[in-house]
Amino acid sequence: MATLLRRPASIARYSRSAAELFTASRSTYSHHTRPQLWSLINARQARSYSSVNPGGPKRPNDEKNNNKNTPEKKENDIQDELADFFKTRNAPSSKPGSRDAAAEKEFLDQSLQFISGLQKAGGLPQRQQDLIRVIQILLKDVKHIPLGMEEFFEKHAVQRKVMTLGEWDNFANYWLDYFDDSMHLFQSEKVSLDEIKSMLKTKSESGPGGEAGKDSKRQGANQGKEQKDGKEQGQKGAPKVVEFKFDPGSFIITSVISYMLYTTFFPGENSRDITWQEFRANFFDKGLVEKLTVLNRSRVRVELNREAIANEMPDSPAAQRNFHYYFTIGSVDSFERKLEEAHNELHIPTSQRIPVAYVDEVPWLATALSFGPTILLIGSVFYFSRRAGGGAGGQSGIFGIGKSRARRFNHETDVKIRFADVAGMDEAKLEIMEFVSFLKEPDKFQKLGAKIPRGAILSGPPGTGKTLLAKATAGESGVPFFSVSGSEFVEMFVGVGPSRVRDLFANARKNTPCIIFIDEIDAIGKSRSKQNFGGGNDERESTLNQILTEMDGFNTSDQVVVLAGTNRPDVLDKALMRPGRFDRHIGIDRPTMKGREQIFRVHLKKILTKEDMDYLCGRLAALTPGFAGADIANCVNEAALVAAREHAESVKMKHFEQAIERVIGGLEKKSLVLSPEEKRTVAYHEAGHAICGWYLRWADPLLKVSIIPRGQGALGYAQYLPSSENYLMSVNQLMDRMAMTLGGRVSEELHFDTVTSGASDDFNKVTRMASAMVTKFGMSKAIGPLHFEEDQQQLHKPFSEETARNIDLEIRRIVDEAYKRCTDLLTEKKNEVGLVAEELLSKEVLSRDDMVRLLGQRPYPDTGEFTKYFGGGGTIAPPEPPVSDEGTTGKDGRDQTPLPS
Ligand SMILES: Nc1ncnc2c1ncn2[C@@H]1O[C@H](COP(=O)(O)OP(=O)(O)OP(=O)(O)O)[C@@H](O)[C@H]1O
Fold first, then answer.
1. Is the pTM higher than 0.80?
2. Are residues 341 and 378 in the same domain?
3. Is Transmembrane helix given among the entry's keywords (predicted)?
4. What is the pLDDT of residue 763?
């Protein structure tokens, strides 16, 4: 458009008519109404602003604009904005005072009228008319003669020289040139109004129409664009690099999902099944078939003549390139026959008959799907075997099933335990030291021709520190330590056990010197003859055989020591124990008083307590007869937990005592509420035990009696302190203990009309004690010094019927005797029982001090430990003999009243 306007011929044409107007009328432009123009400008402007970075510099009057909605207001805005613009634009070129302001104004007005005259002349295209309107507005606000116009102004406005047609032409060109490029850019939305302003500013400085001006305009436009881009970039900060990584997994999943979605929403069809009749009627008879392909002798694919189909049936899917019809055939013979008949019917000569191909295709998808369940099954077996195998020993997968599951502890990092950490088993430590010195200095033994023991069995009750001792051996000798449990050799698959044994020993040989520790070896090492009773276990037997073979297989220089732990050394196969295999048998019993003290000392090291350590360890050891190392560790930890629960700053004696009670009797059952009658019965029951323990000469001294229900089904309990470590027990001690055990029931009988089931556990203990006296301890004159093994599995009793009857009679006699002893005592001390019971009912727990308060000092002297730690007076009593665990009220001196069943 600008080019068009600038064309001399057209300008001349317009200029002439405009010149006429210029002279004829001076106020033509004032008749112009501008809503049309403003709507145009507004539309352009709105679009132009939308392309401007919103975060960029604000337009003047931006605030106002926010509130402007009506066209009127918008028009004013633009006008204001343009006025502002020209104010600044004209500033550098204006020379106020140097020129006649009135003449200047007149010149500009005339210019405006001239431009308006151009428009009035008519014949211009709409867009050019619009442009002229814009120029009118812009020109209206020009206050001073722009640079480059001065000469023209001087000549025609000041000196009033008449303009020639060519000068009019120049004049028109000037103004058009002055604005049109800017307007053109503005209208075509290439640059914003701000940028036009800056362009015009440059132009006004360099003069109109010059090349430099034009260049700078373009530069300005480009600059403006760059600025705009820069602004956008600046706003967003550093350019954002979006990194695309190709992930094959995601790609496949995305592709599959996309395909599924696509096929769901756009179910394209590329095949359809038809019948023979349809085939004939629609295609064959019409001559549209090109070829037939028999697939797998059961289906026929119809190849159609696409062009013919497209002409005949343009809407049919068969017109698509990949679309096929199929029909099923019974057999190839019948198909061929039918086809021939069809050809004959239509009289198709042999040479033009439809060709038939035979293809055997493998339907891949169907085949893959038919294998689906098998693959799924194998996959799940594989997965689960991996999961099952992954847990232990680092072996995983079904192929690792025969691998050993032994955990290997590195002596430098994992096995930090030393002999100092194992307390209270000095003899066992001494025995095992030999293995340590063998592993450390093998030459010392080998040069003398000594064969080093191959292994040792550590046997003893649970929690006595067998594993700990084995670990300490590894820690001391500084060799790798393989730990495995006997049960880990046993699997449901045949042959796995021996294979794991082989693997374990092979591993060990690779890591010599080292120690193998097989915990719970009785799981595989049970005596083979015993197993056969009631069906043997071949797998276990072959595992055991493999261990025997492996242990034989070591040569004398192999520095592999095999230690095994068991709670049941008696059931182990003799072949395991023979020299050359587990030739050392180290028994680890429950710790003695001294041992317990040492174990407490080891575990108390980690506990924050302000108690005197010697006294604390001694007292706790005295309080915990029969405790194994693991019980002690548990007790110490429990005490710390109790203290923490009470927000105590350090663990105190009472916390330890609470912890011991909890370990012995279980948690207090505060939720268990007994009826008053039941509570009374329990109180009298416990009082009966307590009085017997107090007044019977050989009974154990009572520590505490309580009727607070605790875990393990006890409604009340009395804690006694065995006078000493019981290695031997006399008839007197046993009789007194039995009488004391019966004290609960006898007390009930004496104080109530009826008795309860609460004494059932007491009777069990009493019967077992009496039975042991008769059949094992030789304490019955009628039976004599005989020992009868109690074996549940034996079908025949190892004694005659008469002996059996005599045993029964003797057991009964002993129990009756104990019962009489108890009844006599409690009848005599009926008041004392009442006293203790009532006190128990009110206080629930009575200590030894309460007993002394109620009954006076115990008439018999207390033992050494008791005196030392529990304030009893008297001399040290002779050590009491032990009875097997089953035959006493319990080595830990507990006496519990079970819940009535
Ligand atoms: N003599 C001891 N000195 C210090 N702590 C001990 C001692 N005996 C046992 N313990 C503690 O008891 C815990 C359990 O001991 P360990 O596992 O060695 O018993 P275990 O005899 O192997 O038991 P199980 O026969 O049930 O396998 C040890 O971790 C340790 O904290």
1. no
2. no
3. yes
4. 92
